Amino acid sequence: MRTLVVGAGISGLFIAYELVQHGLRDVTVVDASYPGSGATLRNLGCFRTSFTSPEHVVLLKESIRRWLQLKDRLDFEITQKGYLWVARRPETLEGFKKLVEFHHQFGVPTRILSLDEVKEVEPRLNTKIVAGAMFDPTAGKMPIIENFVKLYIEVKKLGVKVVPYTKVTKLVSRGSKIAAAETSRGTIEADVFVVAAAGDSRDIIATAGVDVPIVDIPRHPYVTEPYAKTINPALIIDWDTPGSPHMTQTKLGSFILARDLEDVPRAPLHSERVDAIPHILKPLKELLPFLSRVNIVRYWMGYYDMTPDHHPIYGPVAPYENLYIAAGFSGHGMMMAPVTGKLIASWILDGKPYIDIASNLTLERFRVGRLVKELAVIG
Ligand SMILES: Cc1cc2nc3c(=O)[nH]c(=O)nc-3n(C[C@H](O)[C@H](O)[C@H](O)COP(=O)(O)OP(=O)(O)OC[C@H]3O[C@@H](n4cnc5c(N)ncnc54)[C@H](O)[C@@H]3O)c2cc1C
């Protein structure tokens, strides 16, 4: 069976990896640019299970299990230092308590921290302005370039053809099937087509007459000079400030600071947003006063491929029998990639997802109005 995967980001490569693990031999991945050039090499590399929908909690629990399982086999670098969700207001802490009960139903061991416990987890946090925190010990981070390159080398070793600078311009249908993909470098025929091209999946699948509700929303992480190891958790989130400012520290010492900002969908990736720096720094400096002495040296842009309910779109694309999608990760596609790969492989090979709850996330949900809900879009 010939499979064509469109998009050589982390999702496309994990889909190819799983298909080959399941015995498929003829798997090609094409990319309009170089592998990883989309959101993948622009992300923070953080992961967590502390979501607010059953779909996300169940799938992320499995995805993190899979990242850790593959850690030794593929020599991935992964650390699990937890996420610290900071509540400034007592009402927020009450909300966190309900969230912890929800997580425990799924065996996810989040917990509420008193101010003394917050100090133990992160001694530099200014607890004078904080009511408490939620801690997710399952969460962590990884260096994205290293892990992506290791996966890329592995899929190539397994015989997957990865073809860069080949843009899919049109899906050609014949009856209930997609027969071929027209690309900037000729036509590719295949038996199965998987579109894993983030926000561009919308344009690609539109050529086969199907609407996919994904919008690319710009994100702007700001990077500081490198410092000695300073913060303990993988990510610290100021949940009570609009836009949820958050920060992490890379293994080379730079802090990365980010928050949700209003921006124009698909704004060019070189758009300048230095105006946002004070809006990110002010709340984070209140929580971590040492930040007033750090120097921001650069920033980059990338898109969150957002769906209306902030969950990915997985699985078959009706009315076609051989077209699948994995896109719309709404800021969480790096952490979801291992489960994405296995889900799409099971849909293709067994006709259904190997985890039932994933069937709530097909494209069909928008047609019938059965949206799911996620309140915590961070990273
Ligand atoms: C600033 C930022 C921070 C983030 N932080 C996190 C985080 O901490 N944790 C987390 O889990 N996620 C995070 N994300 C989200 C994560 O990066 C994405 O969800 C994930 O990388 C999606 O991977 P993908 O392979 O689906 O898409 P992409 O990496 O975008 O890959 C899609 C590929 O498709 C290719 N393509 C597009 N159109 C075509 C075409 N017509 N033909 C052929 N190829 C095409 C592109 O060139 C691209 O390489 C973050 C994202 C951003 C922008």
Please give a structural write-up.
The longest helix is centred in the N-terminal third of the chain and has 21 residues, at 54-74. This protein has helices at residues 10-21, 54-74, 90-105, 115-121, 144-157, 201-206, 277-287, 333-350, 364-368; strands at 2-6, 26-30, 46-47, 83-87, 111-113, 132-136, 140-141, 161-163, 168-174, 177-183, 186-189, 192-195, 215-219, 222-226, 235-238, 246-249, 254-258, 296-299, 302-306, 313-316, 323-327. Strand 10 (177-183) and strand 11 (186-189) form a beta hairpin. The protein has 379 residues and is an alpha+beta fold. It is globular. Helix 1 (10-21) packs parallel to helix 5 (144-157), helix 1 (10-21) runs parallel beside helix 8 and helix 2 packs across helix 8. It folds into 2 domains: 2-45 and 145-216 and 307-368, 3-Layer(bba) Sandwich (FAD/NAD(P)-binding domain), CATH 3.50.50; 83-137 and 221-300, 2-Layer Sandwich (D-Amino Acid Oxidase, Chain A, domain 2). The chain starts with a strand and ends in an 11-residue tail after the last helix. The chain has 9 helices and 21 strands. The strands form 5 sheets. It has an 8-stranded mixed beta sheet. Residues 6-12, 30-33, 37-40, 42-47, 167-168, 196-198, 200, 204, 219, 221, 302-304, 327, 329, 331-335, 379 line the site of flavin-adenine dinucleotide (FAD).
Question: Which helices and strands occur, and which strands form pairs?
Answer:
Layout: E1 2-6, H1 10-21, E2 26-30, E3 46-47, H2 54-74, E4 83-87, H3 90-105, E5 111-113, H4 115-121, E6 132-136, E7 140-141, H5 144-157, E8 161-163, E9 168-174, E10 177-183, E11 186-189, E12 192-195, H6 201-206, E13 215-219, E14 222-226, E15 235-238, E16 246-249, E17 254-258, H7 277-287, E18 296-299, E19 302-306, E20 313-316, E21 323-327, H8 333-350, H9 364-368
Parallel strand pairs: 1-2, 1-12, 2-8, 4-15, 12-21
Antiparallel strand pairs: 3-7, 4-6, 5-6, 9-10, 10-11, 13-19, 14-17, 14-18, 15-16, 16-17, 20-21
Helix pairs in contact: 1-5, 1-8, 2-8
Bound molecules: flavin-adenine dinucleotide (FAD).
Flavin-adenine dinucleotide binds at residues 6-12, 30-33, 37-40, 42-47, 167-168, 196-198, 200, 204, 219, 221, 302-304, 327, 329, 331-335, 379.
